[in-house]
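Example 3.2
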Amino acid sequence: MSAPKKVVLAYSGGLDTSIILKWLMVEKGCEVVTFTADLGQGEELEPARAKAEQMGAAAIYVEDLREEFVRDFCMPMFRANAVYEGQYLLGTSIARPLISKRLVEIARAEGADAIAHGATGKGNDQVRFELAAYALEPDIKVVAPWRDWDLTSRTRLIEWAMEHQVQVPKDKHGEAPFSVDANLLHTSSEGKVLEDPAEPAPDYVYQRTVNPEDAPDTPEIVEIGFAKGDPVSLNGEALSPAEMLTRLNELGGRHGIGRLDLVEGRYVGMKSRGIYETPGGTIWLAAHRGIESICLDRGAAHLKDELMPRYAELIYNGYWFSPEREMLQALIDRSQERVNGTVRMKLYKGSASCIGRWSEDSLYSEAHVTFEEDAGAYDQKDAEGFIKLNALRLRLLAKRNAR
């Protein structure tokens, strides 16, 4: 592969991607365009623009993608109730295809022949960034410095930065206690003090949620309105996708909801321990299952649950832009056409519980399930034939085995 001439770099403004920016210019001789996405990570992004300008970036993109992130990526995922390995709500995984999409679009607009990212050679993100990029632009070049350079230790990295006039904050000279990735859906903390899965995570790792033990002693009741499987209102107030998740995050954080200490199986083969906080997403998932429970047919609901682990794995492994994910999405979206209504949620000391749900599209029939007189809605005698037909094969098996 020929050396790239112009590169679009996913740039956070932090030390690592600043070193990558300078390294691409010095070691690769590239013209570098930076792209910084506001996905709701909660950081001021204008310093990243200023730093990229100071370091000589050829062009600088800083974009607010919060609405697109929630509307076009989180919402489709939550319609599927996607959970990886039974617990993880895929907060980091679902952000990567959007970043890659914009990297490719900016590369086209700028006439760049390559993109670059700061993911390491041990993690999942390198796979996610690059699978998405190749799906959208098959001939794009990808530069992954962590796989290419010889800066294999933190000490060597700092030395190189100082040699090449990259400003190194004083607190970066030592080992960081852990690394953090954040967006509007979650925070992810890994490494250093968290690497031993036998040791509890220190309290200071948690950034968005209070300790459930310190959460309010009084439950908070909220109502979430759904339309076609997506949350659209909170306590009767219509909200945009990003506004909705922001408000749910505030509620969940206040009540200590959405903490997860997980050892997961990475796509690249190793296991890793991460501390995740997904306060709003945890409420969202519980509420969505609540409205589905009355609006979704049993067969459709059970099929969704069978397909969900496969769908979640596709997102985790980086296949958002794959035909199989899109096929599954079409099925999932079809199932949500009548998932409309309101869910009442109780938030209390780390838990988000559905305590009420109602809908014009409800399949729940009180006339059929009542213990009182049902006025002929259900003939209990019908159950006898139903049971005997379903028991026939079991009876035949039992008779054969008794011979």
